[in-house]
Amino acid sequence: MNHRSEREHLAAALRWAARLGWQSGICNHFSLAVGADAVGPAGVLINPQGYHWSEVTASSLLLMNESGAVIDGEGSVETTAFYIHLAIHRQVPTARCVLHAHPPYSTAIMCAEGGRLRNCHQDSLRFHRRIAYDNEFGGIAADDNEGWRIAYALGNCPIMMMAHHGITVTGPNVAHALDDFYYLEQAARFQVLAQSTGAALKVMDDNQADRLAPGFQAIDTQTEDHFAAIRRILDREEPEYKE
């Protein structure tokens, strides 16, 4: 039940996210389903309540069972993490990794009327037709209803941008989810900065985006290589994340 490599991967993602300014205080949460079998995950690794992401280690992560009870680790799971993450892991089997946070640029887009990521940069094409937009903000996810509402709103998309809230990125593993999260925030940053000039965005039409997007959405070694580079930096500068 140790899941050492999975713990190290999730701890690395949290440490890197802290460096990039994606977290809010000691809030927000990353999770990873582990021990999968024919009927679902054996458990879900998640960051413990009360920790800054920069101090999370592999051993400090908690393992929840399918009912949300902590079965390995010391500490508790933040309430909204419990409801949001368990609902998504149950509803979307392909969402092995679920990253939920309020990073500045993508969240800023969802604080604007009609907020949408526009195809104004090549990084945006990576997310063309892959994003679900949740416009029905339900307040704090303090019960099953809001957790399941969020999970259903995600639908068949791996990514959700949430009005008045933040973003949720899912993937088959930590490397893919973190890579998508990074480039989503980059695309949002370019869009927000372009809009700050006061000029209209130069948006590709849907036909052009449909034609060009597959080249940016193809899975290649870049995703795994990106995560390997992140871990090499952390191995040198914050090796305690593996503890």
Q: How many separate structural domains?
A: 1
Shape: globular
Q: Can you say what the CATH homologous superfamily is?
A: Class II aldolase/adducin N-terminal domain
Q: What is the percentage of strand-forming residues? A: 5-15%
How many strand segments?
A: 8
Layout: helices, strands, pairs:
Elements: H1 4-19, E1 29-34, E2 43-46, E3 62-64, E4 70-72, H2 79-91, E5 97-101, H3 104-109, H4 122-125, E6 131-134, H5 144-154, E7 159-162, E8 167-171, H6 174-196, H7 206-217, H8 221-237
Parallel strand pairs: 6-7
Antiparallel strand pairs: 1-2, 1-5, 2-3, 3-4, 5-8, 7-8
Protein traits:
L-fuculose-1-phosphate Aldolase; alpha+beta; 8 helices; eight-stranded mixed sheet; 8 strands
Walk me through the structure.
- The mean pLDDT is 94.
- With 243 residues, the chain is an alpha+beta fold.
- It is 42% helix and 14% strand.
- It has helices at 4-19, 79-91, 104-109, 122-125, 144-154, 174-196, 206-217, 221-237; strands spanning 29-34, 43-46, 62-64, 70-72, 97-101, 131-134, 159-162, 167-171.
- Helix 6 (174-196) packs across helix 8 (221-237).
- It has an 8-stranded mixed sheet, with helices on both faces.
- The chain has a single domain (4-242), classed as 3-Layer(aba) Sandwich (L-fuculose-1-phosphate Aldolase), CATH 3.40.225.10.
- Strand 6 (131-134), helix 5 and strand 7 (159-162) form a beta-alpha-beta unit.
